[in-house]
Amino acid sequence: MPSTQPNHRRPAAAQRDSATQAAQSVTASLLHTKSMMEQELSRVSNLSSTIEEDGALLTNAKNEHVGLGGTMKGARGTLNKLKRQDVRDAFVLRLAIIFYWMAVAYVLWTRIKIPFLP
Asked: Which of 6, 75, 111, 118 has the fewest CB atoms within 10 Å around its CB?
């Protein structure tokens, strides 16, 4: 009988060792999964904060763009006034040039009496 007791203990010890190894394997796997989940959570958290920052930046840009709308309308009106003034100035300049040459022709006609001018 003494030989039967060690045989009964050996399978129980082997079962305990395999159960311990299985538990350690499961624990290691769970720790690895936990580590991966923490990394993914950190990545998603960073991504979320980046998206929030970008959203705030876009909102600010939109508000600035809306604020510039009134400025652009005012600038457009001023530009149209300047264009009209430019047309008026060109017209007055042409009239001044025509008047100058008419005065030159009159002086030449009255002082010099150029024969081809009536």
From this structure: 118
The single-letter code of the amino acid at 83 is K
Q: What is d(CA 110, CA 20) in angstroms, rounded to the nearest whole number?
A: 129
First vs last C-alpha separation in the chain: 158
Q: Distance (Å, rounded) from C-alpha 65 to C-alpha 90?
A: 36
Question: By three-state DSSP, how is residue 54 classified?
Answer: helix
Q: How far apart are CA 59 and CA 73, in angstroms?
A: 22
66 three-state secondary structure? helix
3-class DSSP state for residue 113?
coil
Residues in the chain: 118
pTM of the model: 0.43
Name the residue type at position 62.
K
Half-sphere exposure of 44 (CA within 13 A, CB side): 6
Q: What would the pLDDT profile of 19-55 be if each residue is shown by its tens digit?
A: 888 889 999 999 999 999 999 999 999 999 999 999 9
Instruction: For residue 91, give both structure tokens.
Output: 């017209």
